[in-house]
UniProtKB/TrEMBL annotation:
<dbReference type="InterPro" id="IPR005119">
    <property type="entry name" value="LysR_subst-bd"/>
</dbReference>
<comment type="similarity">
    <text>Belongs to the LysR transcriptional regulatory family.</text>
</comment>
<keyword id="KW-0238">DNA-binding</keyword>
<dbReference type="GO" id="GO:0003677">
    <property type="term" value="F:DNA binding"/>
</dbReference>
<dbReference type="Pfam" id="PF00126">
    <property type="entry name" value="HTH_1"/>
</dbReference>
<dbReference type="InterPro" id="IPR000847">
    <property type="entry name" value="LysR_HTH_N"/>
</dbReference>
<keyword id="KW-0805">Transcription regulation</keyword>
<dbReference type="GO" id="GO:0003700">
    <property type="term" value="F:DNA-binding transcription factor activity"/>
</dbReference>
<keyword id="KW-0010">Activator</keyword>
<protein>
    <submittedName>
        <fullName>LysR family transcriptional regulator, nitrogen assimilation regulatory protein</fullName>
    </submittedName>
</protein>
<keyword id="KW-0804">Transcription</keyword>
<dbReference type="Pfam" id="PF03466">
    <property type="entry name" value="LysR_substrate"/>
</dbReference>
<dbReference type="GO" id="GO:2000142">
    <property type="term" value="P:regulation of DNA-templated transcription initiation"/>
</dbReference>
<dbReference type="InterPro" id="IPR036388">
    <property type="entry name" value="WH-like_DNA-bd_sf"/>
</dbReference>
<feature type="domain" description="HTH lysR-type">
    <location>
        <begin position="1"/>
        <end position="58"/>
    </location>
</feature>
<dbReference type="InterPro" id="IPR036390">
    <property type="entry name" value="WH_DNA-bd_sf"/>
</dbReference>
């Protein structure tokens, strides 16, 4: 198996046809087809379904595509690590962010990276926490911001912030409760719009509830932040989330939030890197920048409900 075969296969999948991939790669289509056949023979599996309309990945092809992407990224990182300097880090860095954190961190981080490290190409990917952990293990992302659920053993972790979870609903909602705060038992008794269990917020809520002898009763599961916002604004229920992903609606008064007490709920946000894959100078620089920007956002009150943690 050769690296060029991996590059060819990834290009075919990305462009959806052999002819388009051949044009992009500047390779004759018969030669591209031959390399693909050799790859499939070596693996003993069909990777692509071919038709007049193009190609689609088989189940085996989908699995192999993920591995091929990870291998090619690690090769590129290895080349970059040899050529870049510590004083002027350069190259590509991929950072994974959970949906519920990107609203607070993504834009300030991109602006800071552009200003301080103009030779680094920073790519942000937004995913569910569970998906990010898998991508970090395989090397498809260099770094990831994750939630400390006690199962981050495979990673080297640096604490970033402790983030408060709040009870949030539409202004004037039937689910609104008087006062500046609400007991956890009251919050859990409402119809709640929450992410699924694969989302980092939900397991934390369930864990705190169990420890208090409580449970969620009536839950509408929505994994998309955009759809969850729409459901809140339609007054289908309330939610328990950090303020960051709903900040725009909270600031304009469309949504209101209350602190949760007896007990309060918070989550620990950490920056993670794989233990078995060395960081390039560029990735290490981005990691330091994530810590610095997170602390600045907390100190300035921009990351609402978050308190910076010592590294």
């Amino acid at each position: 198996m050769e690296l060029r075969q991996l590059r060819y296969f990834v290009a075919i999948v990305d462009h959806g046809s052999l002819s388009r991939a051949a044009l992009v790669l500047h390779v004759a289509q018969p030669a591209l087809s031959q390399q693909l056949r050799q790859l499939e023979q070596e693996l003993g599996a069909q990777l692509l379904h071919r038709s007049a309309q193009g190609v689609l990945s088989t189940d085996a092809g989908k699995v192999f595509y993920e591995h091929a992407q990870a291998i090619l990224k690690q090769v590129a990182d290895a080349k970059s690590a040899v050529t870049q300097s510590a004083e002027r880090p350069s190259g590509g860095v991929t950072l994974g962010l959970p949906h519920s954190i990107s609203g607070a961190l993504a834009l300030p981080l991109l602006m800071a990276a552009r200003e301080r490290y103009p030779e680094i190409t920073l790519q942000l990917t937004e995913e569910l926490t569970g998906n990010l952990a898998e991508q970090l293990k395989s090397g498809r992302v260099n770094l990831a911001v994750l939630l400390d659920d006690g199962q981050l053993g495979p990673f080297a972790c640096t604490p970033l912030v402790e983030e408060e979870l709040r009870y949030i609903c539409r202004a004037g909602s039937v689910f609104a409760r008087p006062g500046g705060s609400i007991a956890l038992e009251q919050a859990l008794a409402a119809t709640l719009i929450l992410p699924g269990l694969q989302h980092g917020v939900r397991p934390r809520i369930e864990s705190v509830a169990r420890a208090a002898g409580l449970s969620t009763a009536n839950v509408i599961e929505i994994n998309s932040i955009a759809i969850l916002k729409s459901a809140l604004l339609a007054d289908m229920g309330a939610t328990i989330l950090p303020a960051a992903p709903l900040l725009a609606e909270l600031e304009r008064g469309a949504l209101v939030s209350q602190a949760i007490e007896r007990p309060a709920i918070s989550r620990t946000v950490v920056l993670c890197a794989p233990k078995n894959i060395p960081l390039t100078n560029a990735a290490a620089a981005v990691g330091r920048l994530v810590q610095q920007v997170s602390a600045e956002l907390c100190a300035g009150g921009v990351w609402l409900g978050a308190t910076a943690l010592p590294a």
